[in-house]
Design brief:
The protein has about 325 residues and is α+β, with helices and mostly antiparallel strands. It is built from nine helices and 16 strands.
Length: about 325
C-alpha cells in the first residue's frame, strides 16, 4: 500500500491521480488521522472519487468524531438525531447536543430552540395541526403559524452562510444557473440537518400526513427585489418516486410582492411568518396536475425568505 501524508493524498487527488490519492488517503485514515477520516467519510457519503455508501460514510464520521474531530462530531450528532443511513437514537443525540452546546454557541442556539418545542421523547411533535382549506384543485391548505417567529429566524440565520445562486443540472449532469428561478438558495443536506431543523421537518411531516423519510432536504430561498420563480411544476414526470406534495414555509412578511400564484387558477397565497402552504402536485391517475402550475411572483421591495420541502410518494432518505 502507498505511504504518505494527508497532504500527499490531497495533492494527488487535486492533480487527477485519483486512485493513488484515494490509496494514500485510506492508508492515512487507517492510522487514525481524524482529518483523513473526515475527508474519506465525506467522499464516501457523496460518492466523490470512491463508491457512494452513506452507511459506511456515517461510520467513518463516527470514527473521526471519536478521535476528537469537531466537524465529524457535529455530523455524527445530526445523523444520530435523524436516523439517516443508520440507527436513530434521539435521546442520545440530544445528550451529545447538550455537550456540544457547552462549547459551541451555534449548538447552544440549537438546543435552546429545541427546548422551546413541544416534543415527545422521540423528537416528534406533541401537538396536532388543523389546516385552513384554500382550494379543491389544485388541492391546497394553509397551516397558520405552524412555526414560531424564533424558529423562522433560526432557519434564516442558519441559511445565511450557505446561500448561492439557484442552480439546476443540465443533461450532462453539470450545474448551470436556473433560468426560471432567480433567487439564492441554501440547502440543509442530511449532513447539515441539525436536530432543531430535523424536529421542524418532522412537524411538517405530521401536519402533511406523510412520513419524515418521504421528504427531500429542506431548502431556504432568498428573493431580493425583482427576483422570482417563474411558472413551473414541482411534480417529476417519469420517475419511480415522484413528488406528490410541496410544503412552503413563509419565514418572514416584511416584503412586498412575492405571492405564490397558481397561474392556471385565481389562487394566490401570501402567508404570514410561520405559515405553511401545503399543496398537491399530483392529479387524477397519478399524473401531474396541470392546475398545480405555480410561480413565486417578483418581489417588489424588501427580502423574502421561504423554506421549501418537497415530499416524495415513498421513502426518499438513504
Amino acid at each position: 500500500m502507498a505511504h504518505g501524508t494527508l497532504r500527499d493524498a490531497v495533492q494527488l487527488l487535486n492533480s487527477g491521480q485519483v486512485d493513488e490519492g484515494v490509496q494514500v488517503l485510506r492508508q492515512t485514515a487507517s492510522q487514525g488521522d481524524p482529518e483523513a477520516l473526515f475527508l474519506l467519510a465525506d467522499m464516501t457519503w457523496s460518492g466523490t472519487d470512491v463508491p457512494q455508501d452513506p452507511a459506511r460514510g456515517r461510520l467513518l464520521f463516527e470514527y473521526a468524531a471519536a478521535l476528537g474531530h469537531t466537524r465529524s462530531n457535529l455530523v455524527a450528532t445530526n445523523l444520530m438525531a435523524s436516523g439517516i443511513a443508520g440507527k436513530r437514537n434521539w435521546p442520545a443525540a440530544i445528550e451529545r447536543l447538550a455537550a456540544e452546546a457547552r462549547q459551541l454557541p451555534e449548538r447552544r442556539s440549537t438546543l435552546e430552540l429545541l427546548r422551546a418545542m413541544s416534543l415527545d421523547d422521540k423528537g416528534d411533535p406533541s401537538a396536532s395541526y388543523d389546516p385552513k382549506m384554500l382550494n379543491e384543485r389544485p388541492w391546497a391548505c394553509l397551516f397558520e403559524r405552524l412555526m414560531t417567529p424564533a424558529e423562522c429566524a433560526y432557519l434564516i440565520h442558519a441559511a445565511e452562510g450557505l446561500f448561492r445562486p439557484s442552480m439546476v443540472y443540465d443533461r450532462e449532469g453539470r450545474e448551470t444557473p436556473d433560468l426560471i428561478r432567480t433567487s439564492d438558495g441554501a440547502g440543509f443536506s442530511w449532513l447539515l440537518e441539525d436536530p432543531a431543523i430535523h424536529a421542524l421537518n418532522r412537524r411538517i411531516a405530521k401536519a402533511s400526513g406523510t412520513a419524515y423519510d418521504q421528504g427531500e432536504p429542506l431548502q431556504v430561498l432568498r428573493y431580493a427585489p425583482s427576483q422570482e420563480y417563474k411558472p413551473h411544476f414541482d411534480f417529476l414526470e417519469g420517475v419511480e418516486n415522484p413528488r406528490p406534495w410541496t410544503a412552503l414555509v413563509y419565514l418572514n412578511e416584511d416584503y412586498e410582492g412575492g405571492q405564490t400564484a397558481f397561474v392556471e387558477t385565481d389562487l394566490q397565497v401570501r402567508g404570514s411568518s410561520g405559515d405553511v402552504l401545503l399543496f398537491r402536485n399530483e392529479g387524477p391517475g397519478g399524473r401531474r396536475d396541470p392546475l398545480a402550475k405555480h410561480a413565486g411572483m417578483p418581489v417588489t421591495s424588501g427580502i423574502k425568505y421561504l423554506a421549501t420541502r418537497w415530499i416524495r410518494e415513498r421513502r426518499w432518505i438513504p
